[in-house]
Amino acid sequence: MKKRILIIEDDPVIAEVQKDYLEASGFTADIASHGDKGLALALQGEYDLLLLDLMLPGMDGYEVCRRVREASNLPILIVSAKKEEVDKIRGFGLGADDYILKPFGLGELVARVKAHLARYDRLVGSGEWRRDELTLHGIRIERQSHRVYVNETEVAFTAKEYDLLLFLVSNPNRVFRKEELFERIWGLDALGDHATVTVHISKLREKIERDPSAPQYIETIWGVGYRFNL
């Protein structure tokens, strides 16, 4: 079955070029030229990946990205002419999986679409994502028993380490700021230094990474936060 791509882009020329090239590459693609309409379509759950412009009428791409990410883990690729680092940081912080600058090469666009779909399929499409058990990169989390296995060896985690790991694994490829992780895991009213997040990330890496000094799974996105890679 062909993968379905939703293009949210208000420039009809760019949108049609993207659609034509994606369909020539074996995908099906639909276009929404308005932010609100694009969001409504994205939330229907009928698409496998979202190509999202930022400067849209009605609702900008940042807000679309935020709302889609709250409801779904489908890959979101921002395609924008906004070149400032702050724009990229904001996009990743809202849950985008990739940021492609305009003008872009169509071959590169399709290559990135395929790469993100493959990563998503490895987690969700393969059936590894289960209600009571999560398995990724040899890490198996049993929710009911609160047990964690790394390459089939049980590893002990403190309560907060477990909560942090479960949250990150449950939200792969999304970048979280330190402050956001602190609020999610320790609570909005928790007292403490946000540096505790850094300490706990370090402890997680020691327990799950092959080489904690060169982490592959929990990646530091400099100037933004942390991301658990698929």
TrEMBL record:
Pfam families: Response_reg, Trans_reg_C. InterPro entries: CheY-like_superfamily, OmpR/PhoB-type_DNA-bd, Sig_transdc_resp-reg_C-effctor, Sig_transdc_resp-reg_receiver, WalR-like, WH-like_DNA-bd_sf. CDD domains: REC_OmpR, trans_reg_C. Residues 131-230 form the OmpR/PhoB-type domain. The modification 4-aspartylphosphate is found at residue 53. GO terms for molecular function: phosphorelay response regulator activity; transcription cis-regulatory region binding. Gene3D superfamilies: 3.40.50.2300, 6.10.250.690, Winged helix-like DNA-binding domain superfamily/Winged helix DNA-binding domain (1.10.10.10). SMART domains: REC, Trans_reg_C. Its main location: cytoplasm. GO terms for biological process: regulation of DNA-templated transcription. It is found in: Cytoplasm. SUPFAM superfamilies: C-terminal effector domain of the bipartite response regulators (SSF46894), CheY-like (SSF52172). Residues 131-230 bind DNA. Residues 4-117 form the Response regulatory domain. This is Response regulator transcription factor.
